[in-house]
Amino acid sequence: xxxxxxxxxxxxxxxxxxxxxxxxxxxxxxxxxxxxxxxxxxxxxxxxxxxxxxxxxxxxxxxxxxxxxxxxxxxxxxxxxxxxxxxxxxxxxxxxxxxxxxxxxxxxxxxxxxxxxxxxxxxxxxxxxxxxxxxxxxxxxxxxxxxxxxxxxxxxxxxxxxxxxxxxxxxxxxxxxxxxxxxxxxxxxxxxxxxxxxxxxxxxxxxxxxxxxxxxxxxxxxxxxxxxxxxxxxxxxxxxxxxxxxxxxxxxxxxxxxxxxxxxxxxxxxxxxxxxxxxxxxxxxxxxxxxxxxxxxxxxxxxxxxxxxxxxxxxxxxxxxxxxxxxxxxxxxxxxxxxxxxxxxxxxxxxxxxxxxxxxxxxxxxxxxxxxxxxxxxxxxxxxxxxxxxxxxxxx
Length: 396
Description:
3 domains; Dna Ligase, domain 1; alpha+beta; 42% helix; Alpha-Beta Plaits; four-stranded antiparallel β-sheet
């Protein structure tokens, strides 16, 4: 039987991703104490923070209410979800240029299976160096990379090894894990397992390795978790790197040139996005059973509301989106971007009707507009208010 080539799985992590992102956005923050918080509410927590803020007594997971009572000079920044998402998507594209098998696992964290492309590089460490340098050049983010034959060991190596790139050679997984704290194993955090580990003072992985060697004893102690814990303690993991499955959807987004709370401009923006969605729905001869309108404010907050379309003509689609926008926009802060996302499609065909109603007029007008836009482009015909706003933006 031919020997199988061991897998080469990379775990790429941008440590303190949110902190690095904010410092890219504003260079003046690079030497200042800052902390990114999940929410301005009292129950919000610190998600990421700089070393300067940590020296002043702040820590990850600390409540915002406590942080505000402390004497410190750290700036508390809101969680800018929209910016982090765009940056993370850009990183995903960057990493995907090296291998098609990329699994994102949160902001600034990716698994990649480099097994099939190892012949392009001298060794896995060199491949990791090329990826890290590409990330640095294209996004100014620093990363650490763990390399092993599976996802579990690669992830653990990034968490415990300070080196920027570190490889655990196939066959050495058990020795690598042996001196580490038991908490590095995912199953060690199961309530029943955690209780036994504390009771027996199994502080290091090698102690768990010894116990799971006695199968009957291990089954009595750990029950249904015995098998999984035994595999993890020996560095065994058969899970594969799974690229994300994107659901079929129609997405339109407008990032405003200037953050604003101008109601006329915002409603015009929503109407324009809605008509683009309606135009694409008619091309597919479908309508959407689920639509999401999402707005992002200048301070990082976002609001979302959901609805559904009954048809695919411009007026009905626009009205649904405008109603959802009104429900979203209850804050006085300026808005940075608006997003409309349609999913869960069903067939929708225009039916002939012997009676002329407002609905049939809307359908006929939408079809006429489609003919014009198909020939001259979508922006060839617009509402007058949209053109007025564009002229005002050019003047400013």
